[in-house]
Amino acid sequence: MTVSYKELGFVNTKEMFANAMKEGYAVPAYNFNNMEQLQAIVTACVESGSPVIVQVSSGARKYANATMLRWMARGAVEMMKDIGKPVPIALHLDHGDSFELCKDCIDSGFSSVMIDGSHLPYEENIALTKKVVEYAHANDVTVEAELGVLAGIEDEVSAEHHTYTDPAQVEDFVKRTGCDSLAISIGTSHGAYKFKVKPGESVPPLRFDILEEVSNRLPGFPIVLHGASSVDQKAVATINQYGGKLDNAVGIPEDQLRKAAKSAVCKINVDSDGRLVMTAAVRKVFVTKPEEFDPRKYLGPARTDLIAMYKEKNQSVLGSANRVK
Ligand code: 13P
């Protein structure tokens, strides 16, 4: 049985991105695998008046069960009504790797899908993306595509080296595929180890020249930034203080993300920052209160810290807070 996202209370990304482009901010796209993460995302976005994209990777679907995740997302729509003024929410497939997976998500209530053909030869990326776009658009679902390859590891997506997006390809790609937004590679990467730098050394800046050229060639077209966690050093220090071992974990400096959010970048993906904040809180409870064995006593504090982190991001990095009128 197929179900339309509209019946479930989700929206596609069209209007979200149009507003973000007009007002110069980025919509947060936060990944979730479990209840506490999803509760935190929704609570933070309702409390800060930010539109939100909740996204699910194929790894998350395997971990949590596709049916369970879908119903959880539907629960999040209902939960918003209990906790305040609901904000526009999209349910998005992150890094879809096949037409079949995208179709399955569209048929089961996703309002937006990513088809990631970035590892394929150019013409094959076009053919696959176009096929997904045709099916998605027939269902009023929006499609994110990718050109250029990000380094790093995220669930099943991994690449050792990145390939910057070639701005000379973007017009042809968007015209021939009909995609609604484009993820580009300008130096961000997935995971908590984004740059190989020694402690105290600064990280290389993102390639804003590529972003500028892409947006000049695609005026008004929404650009997506993957691998955009800033890897908060306080969370890393807490993890290490309480028995963790994260050596030289570094992310994208917040001022660079602020700059990107004001440009044609309309969607900023954050997964690792949530993982780090959650791990820090859980480790702290385990070490400071070794007598606790109730999951609510360690996942609860993790959820509280997640809410604070997402709110802070919406307010002071992405600029998406207080945008829902
Ligand atoms: P981070 O690993 O930087 O959080 O990136 C997540 C992402 O891009 C999901 O697609």
UniProtKB/TrEMBL annotation:
Pfam families: F_bP_aldolase (PF01116). Zn(2+) 2 binds at residues 116, 146. It is an enzyme of class 4 (lyase). GO terms for biological process: fructose 1,6-bisphosphate metabolic process; glycolytic process. It comes from the Bacteria. SUPFAM superfamilies: Aldolase (SSF51569). The keyword Chaperone does not apply. Coiled coil: none annotated. Gene3D superfamilies: Aldolase class I. The active site is at residue 94. Binds 2 Zn(2+) ions per subunit. One is catalytic and the other provides a structural contribution. This is Fructose-1,6-bisphosphate aldolase, class II. The lineage of its organism: Bacteria, Pseudomonadati, Elusimicrobiota, Elusimicrobia, Elusimicrobiales.
